[in-house]
Amino acid sequence: MRVLSAIVLLVIAGIHLFLVFDGVGGLLGVLFVLNVIAAVVLAVGMLVTRGGLLKIVTVLSLLFIIASLLALVLALTVGLFGIREIWTFTLVPETVVVEAIGIVVLAITTAMVLRTPRGVAARQPQMS
Question: Average pLDDT over the chain, rounded to whole?
């Protein structure tokens, strides 16, 4: 699931990077570049971290994708930072689908990572 989560994050980065190279500029272009950087860092973190740091990375990745989709939905409806988006703009429908799938994948990954293995608490020594 961690590899699949990293792939989803990289696909989201790829979509935003494509849009920057396709001519999206201004504030939206800057936000897309930041999105690319964050997604790549989180994808790498998903693959290389362990233990407590992995828990942080998975939760941050899930929150990142939720925020990314929420920002797009806001831009499509009421506007965000003065930016109004339309459904027919380049890759908007695809982005909604990929980010919705990403939320499901990252939610499952996060649940798996945060789940405490059974019997671990029972085997730890008692502190008196």
Answer: 88
